[in-house]
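User: Hi! I'm a student and our assignment asks us to look at how structure tokens line up with a sequence. Could you show me two examples?

Assistant: Happy to help. In each example below, the sequence comes first and the structure tokens follow. Example one:
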Amino acid sequence: MPSRKTTPIDKFLSEDDAKETPKPSKNGIDPLLEKIQELVKVFANESGHSYRAQIGRYRASSVPYCNRKIAFEMLLGVEELEELEEDTRLVGTAMTGQIIHDFLEKALEPILISSEEEVEVNLGEFVISGHYDLLVKDVDGNKIVIDVKTCSDASKVQAKEAHVRQLSVYQAALGGIDGALLYVERNNFQMKMFRFPFDKEIFSQVVVKMTELHSRITRTWEYFEKKQREGMPQLIGLTLDQVLEAVKLDLVPPREPEFEYECRNAWSRCRFYDICYSSNSRYGR
């Protein structure tokens, strides 16, 4: 029986593999995976609505959350915030929400009026602004603004009071039209919707909450501006030590999370958790 001719693949298989397998990094993760995670995080940050918080202009998306957290994010300098970076697992939640939103935007084109438009409510001393998710026409041709939320089980979800308050900002900014919370299940896209006419009482709760926030932030900033005139270095953003001082002086808002999981849960915690709860003598409550 004639011998089979050697083919290029035979040669390839017979050669010793001279290439080295990439060594894992110190934490045991493949360097390629580390790079992928880094790029995903950058993309997630750039894909969202980028803004730098400023005193007197507050985001509608922050309305549902703890006033202390909002104050810290506005008062702290950029470098201090980077040191207190939030749990990277939150990136996945944000990206899932963005993917679902993009899908809905395409799917609802026949009834879609606009999406992700920025709107604002001017309350004199301060402004509340934000990007609503979807503005559509209902079956009767009426405009309705929709805020999309992801959930783990659409069959059991109930409209959260804090979400209703956030929705009321978009409703107020759009002239008091109807609004809806659309909860979408992450795993199988099951949905549940709650529709709300504009409620002035609910929106007034938002105004009270944000007025208190604005008052506290302004008071804190003015306190350190005065210290600056007395010899403190140029004030751009507060340092962590200055924020801790503000906590001890009761200048910033108290710790009042809107959700029980806001401070800490099984898989993440607020970036300011140690400031509020740590027994370390450096941190105050």
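Example two works the same way, sequence first and then tokens:
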Amino acid sequence: MSVDLNQMAKESVKDIRFWILLFFLVRLIGITSPPVETWHSWRQTVVNMTARNYHETGIDLMHPRVDIAGDLTGITGMEFPIYNACIAVMMNVFGEAHWYGRLLNLIAASFGIWFFYRLIRDHVDERTAFLAAMILLGSLWFSMSRKIIPDIFACSLIFIGIERCIGYIKGNLSAFWMLLGIALCSIGVLIKLSVGCWMILLPLSYFLPGSNRTRWWTLNVQSLGLLTIISFLMGEDRARMGFISYRNYTGIKLRKDLHFKIIR
């Protein structure tokens, strides 16, 4: 049985999964490099710092801890540290290393692109979905998705969650996927509040052709319940008292002050 390699190659370049894999492999180059880029180096260091403290002292999501608070405990207000905790789990399993956050972010971002593509393909058309995914792959997403910061990680969870939830509303998926989708969206918003703007797609799905009204109400009522929990958890973080401002020096003064809200 002969195989037409040219035909296979032509079909591959039309498949978004080929490009997701290619971009994934390209970004594996230097994946173990330390976070010393001039852009977001301090932010990546803080994420790793919190993750290492979780690895050494145990994971406490309500009390993330940094090492730059002098004689204070270092407990700090920050994004809900689920991403940091995931890095700590990898440290617990594979041993301490500084690059786990890069790999974790890159894997999540690759899945996020796939579900972003599916979301557009199912509600617009395949060509538009392919072009949109390629634009996103080559955008700021390309560099940010291998940094040790939670932004792209959170956005990817939102894409996956919304795609699952809308699939449920249209009757294509079971309640299990709906609950998983709501959970992923909730975690994404907790990690990075700004990605919550994508959640507007859930109430707007009421107007999609084929939308099941009963399923739509079921989804959105449960989403409101989870938003209440999110508000409580974020309120707990904001209610911490005794915030101080920390100015970082590394031989010379940095261009900006690094503000960390430290308590106790």
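Here is something you could point out in your write-up. The chain has a mean pLDDT of 81.
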